[in-house]
């Protein structure tokens, strides 16, 4: 057994929280260790953000070549989707980014301990904050750093009656490994993951049904976004069943597919039976908090997630937490930002809790959806004097040129204080455009400033300017 005591900070987990926090800590001169049992980059790089966006890029190109191409005077014959090549491109993107992290780690002299880490202390054998690592070769290492950041991430939740078998009933983990696009799919859950997979599989030819328990798709978002998304999905031939769920006893595996019974969440009715090649269960994610020795170490959970204080400290001394284990929003960029806050605190540079309202949300299907801040309903529930400005992309020259005119920008503001409270976008490049909204909220911009900032013409960003003007009924191209 090896013992190491020289580290200032140890990250348990090398996902977006762990690897970004580690690099940032090293930049600040801390001695850093990362314990990782799988691959650096975590869910985001290997089973989430990056591989799904790589496949969505293939889908977007395929759609553009077939639909936007001929309209713009570019025709291509014999266009077809090559699943093997798409998976190769996805794999190459992941590998390249993983090697990038490895290279940065090496340069920053961050030590990676391969294996499963577990909190050992406090006990007569180990002080608080001691971490044991059972390496692949069976050798044990005990690390006693000054601080530990628990960043072990999350995994897909499953539903009783729909146990994943990796082939017919899958979570997002297995969906990524399917070699072929299913001919038909039922997607349970119309959150970020369900929506992205519905869009992807539809673009690649599948018949898709989304079953969402809430009244709209992406129920956490502004209701207008969910409604517009459902409208566009239906236009693309995606069946959207809201206020519906699957019957846990109504699932039947067949040799060539699955039959599920879908029923309304409220009210009576047997619902109907849907048959599909594949059922994707996308009903949220659960934190990886088991087998870490949390309880013995004195780390308290709240609603299943690790409870954290003003500096993301846990209830145990010198133990912190970041990423999906601390609860929603379960987003890679939030995980990274929290990890940096923890390090700022440890390095004596301030830190402190982030305002979750400043965290943008982004969903990368077609159409793209992105938002930051309060929905209209949430702003009203807070008793704000709400003013709303909405501007459709069909009034934006660049959107017309690009042939993507569906969707809109909606700005929620406070009529009396003029504060921007929320920015909601559905349509072309929403996930890039939302950066403006995030900056506006961080800088506590007045909605007038959002309308005054001059955008290049023609660009899609003009939709933000117009939506800001629309708050006072002054949008030009409306
Ligand atoms: P989610 O919580 O965002 O959505 C799950 C959806 O499933 C909800 O809309 C919920 O109402 C619905 N649901 C739950 N149980 C159901 C049932 N029995 N029948 C029908 N519907 C049911 O979770 P997700 O989409 O699985 O994503 C997991 C996490 O990963 C989220 O925190 C999400 O933010 C994150 N994520 C984000 C992105 C992105 O931002 N682009 C992409 C993927 C994942």
TrEMBL record:
Belongs to the class-I pyridine nucleotide-disulfide oxidoreductase family. FAD binds at residues 53, 117, 152-154, 324, 330-333. Signal peptide: none annotated. The lineage of its organism: Bacteria, Bacillati, Bacillota, Bacilli, Bacillales. It comes from Hydrogenibacillus schlegelii. Binds 1 FAD per subunit. The active site is a redox-active disulfide bond. It is an enzyme of class 1 (oxidoreductase). SUPFAM superfamilies: FAD/NAD(P)-binding domain (SSF51905), FAD/NAD-linked reductases, dimerisation (C-terminal) domain (SSF55424). It is found in: Cytoplasm. One of its GO terms (molecular function) is flavin adenine dinucleotide binding. Residues 359-468 form the Pyridine nucleotide-disulphide oxidoreductase dimerisation domain. One of its GO terms (cellular component) is cytoplasm. Gene3D superfamilies: 3.30.390.30, FAD/NAD(P)-binding domain. It comes from the Bacteria. This is Dihydrolipoyl dehydrogenase. Pfam families: Pyr_redox_2 (PF07992), Pyr_redox_dim (PF02852). NAD(+) binds at residues 189-196, 212, 284. Disulfide bonds join 44-49.
């Amino acid at each position: 057994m090896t013992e190491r005591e020289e580290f200032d900070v140890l990250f348990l987990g090398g996902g977006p929280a762990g690897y970004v926090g580690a690099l940032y800590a090293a930049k600040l001169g801390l001695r850093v260790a990362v314990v990782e049992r799988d691959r650096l980059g975590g869910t985001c790089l290997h089973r989430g953000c990056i591989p799904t966006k790589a496949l969505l890029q293939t889908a977007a190109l395929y759609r553009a070549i077939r639909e936007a191409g001929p309209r713009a005077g570019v025709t291509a014959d014999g266009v077809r989707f090559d699943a093997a090549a798409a998976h190769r491109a996805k794999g190459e993107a992941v590998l390249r980014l993983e090697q990038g992290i490895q290279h940065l780690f090496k340069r920053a002299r961050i030590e990676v301990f391969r294996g499963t880490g577990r909190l050992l202390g406090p006990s007569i054998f180990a002080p608080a904050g001691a971490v044991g690592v059972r390496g692949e070769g069976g050798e044990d290492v005990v690390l006693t750093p000054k601080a530990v950041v628990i960043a072990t991430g999350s995994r897909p939740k499953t539903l009783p009656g729909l146990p994943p078998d990796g082939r017919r009933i899958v979570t997002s983990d297995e969906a990524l490994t399917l070699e072929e696009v299913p001919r038909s799919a039922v997607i349970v859950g119309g959150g970020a993951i369900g929506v992205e997979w519905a869009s992807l599989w539809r673009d690649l030819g599948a018949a898709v049904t989304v079953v969402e328990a809430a009244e709209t798709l992406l129920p956490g978002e502004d209701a207008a976004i969910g409604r517009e998304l459902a409208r566009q999905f239906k236009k693309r031939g995606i069946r959207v069943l809201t206020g519906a769920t699957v019957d846990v006893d109504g699932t039947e595996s067949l040799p060539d597919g699955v039959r599920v019974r879908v029923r309304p969440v409220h009210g009576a009715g047997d619902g109907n039976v849907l048959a599909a090649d594949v059922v994707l269960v996308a009903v949220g994610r659960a934190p990886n908090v088991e087998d870490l020795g949390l309880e013995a170490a004195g780390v308290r959970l709240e609603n299943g997630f690790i409870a954290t204080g003003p500096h993301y400290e846990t209830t145990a001394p010198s133990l912190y937490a970041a990423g999906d284990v601390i609860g929603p929003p379960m987003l890679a960029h939030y995980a990274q930002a929290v990890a940096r806050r923890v390090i700022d605190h440890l390095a004596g540079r301030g830190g402190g809790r982030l305002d979750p309202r400043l965290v943008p949300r982004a969903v990368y299907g077609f159409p793209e959806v992105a938002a930051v801040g309060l929905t209209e309903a949430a702003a009203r529930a807070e008793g704000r004097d709400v003013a709303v400005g909405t501007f459709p992309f069909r009034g934006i020259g660049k959107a017309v040129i690009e042939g993507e005119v569906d969707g809109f920008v909606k700005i929620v503001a406070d009529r009396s204080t003029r504060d921007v409270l929320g920015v909601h976008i559905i349509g072309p490049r929403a996930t890039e455009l939302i950066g403006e909204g995030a900056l506006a909220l961080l800088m506590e911009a007045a909605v007038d400033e959002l309308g005054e900032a001059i955008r290049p013409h023609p660009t899609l960003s003009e939709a933000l300017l117009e939506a800001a003007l629309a708050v006072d009924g002054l949008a030009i191209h409306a």
